[in-house]
Automatic annotation (TrEMBL):
Pfam families (alphabetical): Plug (PF07715), TonB_dep_Rec_b-barrel (PF00593)
Residue ranges of every copy of the TonB-dependent receptor plug domain listed in the record: 54-147
Gene Ontology, cellular component aspect: cell outer membrane
Species of origin: Chryseobacterium ureilyticum
Protein name, UniProt field: Iron complex outermembrane recepter protein
This protein's record includes keyword Membrane: yes
Origin organism lineage: Bacteria, Pseudomonadati, Bacteroidota, Flavobacteriia, Flavobacteriales
InterPro entries, per the entry: Beta-barrel_TonB, Beta-barrel_TonB_sf, Plug_dom, Plug_dom_sf, TonB-dep_rcpt-like
Length: 729
């Protein structure tokens, strides 16, 4: 920490000197700060332009300016600024499902949409091409479908677009745990008439972790984009995302034994038994190589003053190959009273998942008599092709106090798999296959009617048909099936004070096709009905002081039915299920984005979620699901920037995140296991001049030990420092 204070002091000296050359006006800086922190209206939440104050859906947005001020380089980190969102699991890099896992309103969610289209990234997600991140709250299948949406909401990243002047920046960053990064953002018109525009964002990061400083985890992003406007009515956009990763997985502990057997029911108690927070419990060369290739194309055409067309195409490709060690606490094979660590692996081998999506939208804004109507109508086709192969094995059991854990490494694990492959039961006992093709056809329409000034009524309807072609799950073939479902949506907003205060309510719906399940001891299968989630929500929105203060307060209730319940097992160990489960998630969320006085901004949120099984087996009935995350979440970031005087351009901020106890195990048979509550504090300081920018941040400056997890315990980063220098042109 002493070194951090010295760096901050030196930076302050530089800033006082450099400010004399700063020609920015106070007014222009003031506008930049306001635009950085003020909540943005959304074109995506209902696939049509709506002001936040007149939108019946609750959503949060974080712009690139916030990420820049806080020195955040990944989308994964950015979610600490969003009310009611908790990180559960860092990216594992596995094809298909390897991206970051988050929790929204008690439900697991991923970051799978870009510009409103399916585009999952299964590695750590670089923010180099991010203009804004939007988190749409609640079940949202009506306009976005069932395939990548969570009952808790939808996460949509909005990417940077080319602009009409030459410009850009080059940045270098370095910090704790051998972190270093280089990035560039270059924009240029390619023709003199500025009809053809080009932009390139690219970055390379290499870093260790607090557990393994020499890990040399590498992350590469290359994201070019083009915009072509041949006429005033026609715009064509094309973007490519190329991301590559070669990295160790996060050290994750699963729980396969009751807490009574382990002698501890929380991670802080497990530390007292000998667990080491700073230990990876594995050796070298256990990385996974992962790739993501996403293309987005769009043709926007203005048919007339009232109707616009948008034709969108998206392709997504994820690939992974490599080791994925995991761990769990277990009694010693020789002494049931001694608790240690079982080490295991689930490798991915040349695994791939691809998506192709074609979407056509027509937006209309017209009047019938004196009544305004805003309408979107569209159709969507998506093809998903899954082709994944996994190998898994137990490795060994080790005590907490072992002198060395390096014997589990790339060479020894490869040798173990080689020996297992000679066994006639290898395919059955040590491999898992997931293959299948699925076509999804959808049509939808949504209309916002304004019968009187200040009153907006939204009605939406979607029909989605899933045509699964068949595939393989584990060693068992998965039969083909066809299934369809309707998804309605209703929202009402009334502005109590025009453009300042509104009251709103919504009904939102989502569904999931779970396919077949085993319905009896003879392993007969039955096609499940779609699982459904229905949300009712109400609250208030405010946009005050010319949009400088934006707040949302809401209460929601989500009920899920038709979930599959385990009622036993076949002689082969496969789960027998019935479709009779249900659960309820309800809660309150308060969010605020405020530019309170000149130069001073606040992002804040608090949420409470109460979730429980209402129809389930006796082991979990009435309990909170182990995947529901912490009931209480609080986020805060306060930032101040000098806008005039000798310190003009200097800014600093402080913030933090609080989460209450998280029960990642919660059943009668297993007992409970808790990830303890935590408060993580972060601070940053920066100086922004016309031609350069300097920034320093200290994350978790109180050195808090804390864990996140998706029914797992994953130790998180301790105190770390990062500095950055940017040259702007």
């Amino acid at each position: 920490m002493k070194n951090v204070l010295i760096c901050a002091s030196a930076l302050g000296t530089m800033l006082v000197s450099a400010q004399k050359k700063d020609s920015l006006t106070t007014k222009s800086i003031d506008e930049v700060v306001i635009n950085t922190y003020a909540k943005k209206d959304s074109d995506y939440s209902n696939k049509m332009p709506l002001k936040a104050i007149e939108d019946p859906q609750v959503y949060s947005s974080i712009g690139k300016g916030v990420l820049e001020n806080q020195l955040i380089f990944t989308v994964d980190e950015a979610f600490r600024n969003v009310a009611g969102v908790q990180k559960m699991w860092s990216a594992t890099n596995r094809a298909g499902d390897g991206g970051i896992y988050l929790n929204l309103r008690g439900f697991v969610a991923g970051n799978s949409m870009r510009n409103g289209m399916v585009a999952p990234i299964t590695t750590s997600m670089d923010a180099i091409n991010i203009e804004r991140i939007e988190v749409l709250k609640g079940p949202s299948a009506t306009l976005f479908g069932s395939n990548v949406t969570s009952y808790g909401g939808v996460i949509n990243r909005i990417t940077k677009r080319p602009y009409e002047t030459f410009g850009g920046s080059i940045s270098l960053a370095g910090g704790s745990n051998n972190y270093y990064r280089a990035q560039a953002d270059v924009n240029a018109p390619l023709t003199n008439d500025k009809k053809l525009l080009f932009r390139l964002n690219t970055a390379y990061t290499n870093q260790g972790t607090f557990q393994k400083t020499n890990a040399k985890n590498s992350f590469y992003a290359f994201t070019p984009s083009l915009t072509y406007r041949p006429t005033d009515k026609l715009e064509i956009n094309a973007e490519l995302e190329m991301l590559e990763t070669n990295a160790y997985p996060e050290t994750s502990f699963f729980f396969y034994f009751p807490s009574s057997t382990l002698g501890a029911d929380s991670m802080d108690k497990m530390e007292k038994l000998g667990y080491d927070y700073k230990q990876t419990y594995m050796g070298d060369n256990l990385k996974t190589t992962a790739k993501a290739r996403n293309f987005f194309g769009q043709v926007n055409y203005k048919i007339n003053d009232h109707i616009k067309s948008s034709t969108n195409v998206s392709t997504s490709y994820s690939y992974s190959d490599g080791f994925n060690p995991y761990f769990y606490f277990k009694p010693s094979p020789d002494n049931a009273l001694e608790i240690g660590i079982a080490r295991a692996d689930q490798s991915t081998k040349d695994s791939k998942r691809t998506y192709f999506q074609l979407q056509q939208n027509f937006n209309a804004d017209f009047k019938i008599g004196s009544v305004r109507n805003r309408t979107v109508a569209g159709f969507d086709y998506m093809r998903m092709n899954d082709n994944q192969f996994f190998m898994f094995t137990e490795f060994d059991w080790v005590p907490f106090n072992a002198a060395d854990y390096s014997n589990m490494n790339g060479q020894t694990l490869a040798e173990k798999y080689k020996s297992l492959q000679g066994s006639p039961t290898f395919d059955r006992d040590n491999t898992y296959i997931s293959t299948g093709k699925k076509d999804v056809y959808s049509g939808y329409i949504s209309n916002v009617i304004t019968p009187v000034t200040g009153l907006n009524i939204l009605t939406s309807l979607r029909y989605e048909s899933v045509d699964f072609k068949g595939g393989q799950t584990g060693q068992n073939p998965t039969p083909a099936y066809t299934q369809g479902a309707w998804s309605p949506k209703l929202g009402i907003v009334y502005q109590l004070i025009h453009d300042k205060v509104s009251v709103f309510g919504n009904y939102q719906n989502s569904f999931t096709s779970n396919g077949y399940y085993i319905s009896d001891a003879a392993s007969n299968v039955t096609l499940s009905d779609p699982e459904r989630a229905n949300q009712f929500e109400g609250g208030f929105k405010a946009s005050l002081v010319k949009g400088r203060i934006s707040t949302t307060l809401s209460y929601y209730n989500i009920k899920v039915k038709n979930t599959l319940l385990n009622i036993g097992y076949t002689a082969q160990g496969r789960a027998i299920q019935r479709q009779a489960g249900s659960l309820t998630s309800s809660g309150v969320e308060l969010e605020a984005n405020a530019y309170l006085i000149k130069g001073f901004s606040v992002i804040a949120g608090v949420s409470y979620n109460d979730m429980k099984y209402t129809e389930a087996d006796n082991d979990v009935i009435g309990r909170r699901p182990a995947t529901a995350s912490s009931p209480w979440l609080v986020n805060l970031n306060a930032s101040y920037q000098f806008l005039d005087g000798k310190l003009k351009g200097l800014g600093f901020g402080v913030g933090g995140n609080y989460a209450s106890d998280n029960k990642i195990v919660n059943s009668t048979s297993m007992g409970t296991f808790i990830l303890p509550k935590y408060l993580v504090m972060n601070a940053n300081i920066f100086y922004d001049a016309p031609k350069f920018r300097i920034g320093i941040k200290v994350d978790n400056f109180t050195n808090e030990k804390y864990w996140n997890g998706y029914t797992t315990a994953n130790a998180q980063q301790l105190a770390n420092v990062l500095g950055s220098f940017t040259y702007k042109f």
